Amino acid sequence: MTARGRVQLEKIVKKHGAFEALKGIDIEIQPGEFFALLGPSGSGKSTTLRILAGLDAPTSGRILLDGEDVTGADARARDIAMVFQSYALYPHMTVGENIAFPLEMAKTPKAEIAPAVREAAAKVKIDHLLDRKPGQLSGGQQQRCALARAIVRKARLFLLDEPLSNLDAMLRLATRVELKKLQRSLGVTAVYVTHDQEEAMTLADRMAVFREGEICQIGRPADVFAAPNCIEVAAFIGSPPMNLITTRTTDGGVLIGGRHVPVAAPLAAGRAVVVGVRPSAVRFDPAGIPVSVDVVENLGDAAILDLTLEGTPLRARYDRFPLPREGETMAVSFAPEDIHLFDPSTRRRI
Amino acid sequence: MKGNKLRLALLLGASGLFLLAWIFPIFWSLLNAFKSEQDVLAYPPKLIFTPTLAAFRDVLFGPTSIVPNLISSFIISIGTTVVTMVLAIPAAYALARLRVPGKKWSGFYVLATQMLPPVGIIIPYFLILRDIGWIDTYQGIILIYLSFSLPFAIWLLVSYFEDLPFEMEEAAFLDGASRLMTLWRIILPQVRGGVAVTVVFVFLNAWNEFLFAVVLSGNVVRPVTISMFNFVSVEQTLWSKLAAVSALAMLPVIILGIIAQKHIVKGLTVGAVKGGGRR
């Protein structure tokens, strides 16, 4: 299979009147990659997807698909398939007709349509529902129908706009795995919009973290998790997210709750910094700094503890049983390599 | 339990009264259509009589047959309906979807055309049609009917189009459909209820119209609403024939009503819930 589905977004700007929804987006996606656009609602990730699909036009910037400039091209000329958040199935058509529609529009010979529809439906396990109307399907089946309609045409690019957000939690986990398998087996480039960092972390080969119309960071999920490049990404990635403490540097470390904590790459003393510590990186160490346990959230196999370290709130993951009781005093320590430092004025990683 | 029964009885009684007031003229007219002229004029009115089809035979096959007039009415009504729908559907879709300048005022314009007293514009219409030589032509009368039916149909259809989610059209675009194809394959099948309601209203308005027809038509174009007056003259009124023509003229309306009943009821309730349709 030739490598189709290379995407280049160059300096994409989208303005709605005076409001800048996108402030110059640059993304390059490789063929076959599963790429997530992650960010809170209103951060511009859906706008980016719509511009890529051709449903909205950028105010400025260029869109290239496989090296070809499609900035001014119609949605239907771009050879892109999309799964909408609402699925957008055609309610007056059967499942089979829904899946066949893109092929009909592409003037596929009649004899080829039926087998192609059956094959696509079988891939998402709805081949027994072809004669039903979308209204007679469950939410999960509708979602599969939307997927089948998107994959039947073998488009060069596969866009997914929060496709799992309307499913219940159990189904979402199961579908997530299937989605990944499906994308791998088709070898198609996928661009996936989500506000759920866990979905992005588990599904994506690479992801772009959006905030207020800008991309904060692009990278492999593991890299973004390990080294968030700004305070916003640090606050968004991870569940629960990173503890962020505004404090000052000391000679060779930082102050956390008035205590000196050494860091891997010390800065000049007395500088204002934001210290980031993942809840999973808080170590329970009898020789450490004393903390009081305020709240214990039992997750079953672990717990999230809300602690106070000399007036500074801190969340920590704890997986030793029995769990501490609320009101108890414990002690914590931090490994120097687990301390992330951010500049409070530029909000960038130091 | 007892209260419910009383309520039901009152409700049925009230509906019965309304129905009676509504149906009596129709019933009376139908009754007269099957009477002989003597029976019609008999006093006290005869409820029991020997029914005859003489009046129907006369108005259909006699020297004053109304069949050409029925055909004339059909040409006008179908012509008006077809042209209206062909123009109104894309116009309403555009108005519902695209950012058209003056969109806000279009609703007012539509209502204004419905509020104009027809008598007030009939003379300008007459003068215009006379100047272009379209008096007593089908294109002339259809053009005049369009000036009312088109804004009305657009206004009615827009509310149906506005109810459809954007995403469905966007999905169709991405599936490779053009805008026209999307309208035809995706949008229209979903607003077929609204289209049915609009067709019925437009057809009925054209079918029932009298005032413009009487002024703007003549010997070539002579719809059945006008021809009925053949049976009313200074010396006498041929009541049973008039009643027979009325019955025949009502027939298409009733048939259309029965066919479209389901859609009309649905369409009316949609309008009711949304508070008059257009937002």
C-alpha Rg of chain A (nearest Å)? 24 Å
From the alpha-carbon coordinates, what is the Rg of chain B to the nearest angstrom?
A: 23 Å
Give the termini distance of chain A in whole angstroms: 43 Å
**Main beta-sheet annotation of chain A:** 6 strands, mixed
Please provide the count of β strands of chain A: 19
- The overall average pLDDT of chain A, rounded, is 91
Low-confidence stretches of chain A: none
Number of strands of chain B: 0
Mean pLDDT of chain B: 86
Instruction: Please state the structural category of chain B.
Output: mainly alpha
Give the N-to-C terminal Cα separation of chain B: 41 Å
Q: Helicity level of chain A, as a percent range? A: 10-25%
Beta strand % of chain B: under 5%
Largest interface: A-B, 23 and 17 residues
Sketch the major β-sheet of chain B.
Answer: none
**Number of H/I helices of chain A:** 8
Could you spell the SSE succession of chain B in H and E letters? HHHHHHHHHHHHH
Shape of chain A: elongated
Helical fraction of chain B equals over 70%
Count of runs of 4 or more consecutive helical residues of chain B: 13
Verbal overview:
The complex is a heterodimer of chains A (350) and B (279). Chain A is α+β, with helices and mostly antiparallel strands and 350 residues long. Chain A is built from eight helices and 19 strands. Chain A is 24% helix and 35% strand. In chain A, the strands form four sheets. A six-stranded mixed beta sheet of chain A has the order 6-7-8-3-9-10, sandwiched between helices. A five-stranded antiparallel beta sheet of chain A has the order 13-12-11-14-19. In chain A, strand 7 (157-161), helix 5 and strand 8 (189-194) form a beta-alpha-beta unit. In chain A, helix 2 (95-105) crosses helix 3 (110-123), helix 2 (95-105) runs parallel beside helix 4 and helix 3 (110-123) crosses helix 4 (139-151). The two termini of chain A are 43 Å apart. Chain B has 279 residues and is mostly helical. Helix content of chain B is 75%, strand content 0%. The radius of gyration of chain B is 23 Å and the shape is globular. The two termini of chain B are 41 Å apart. Classes of the chains: A alpha+beta (350), B mainly alpha (279). Chains A and B meet through strand 6 and helix 2 of A and helix 8 and helix 9 of B.
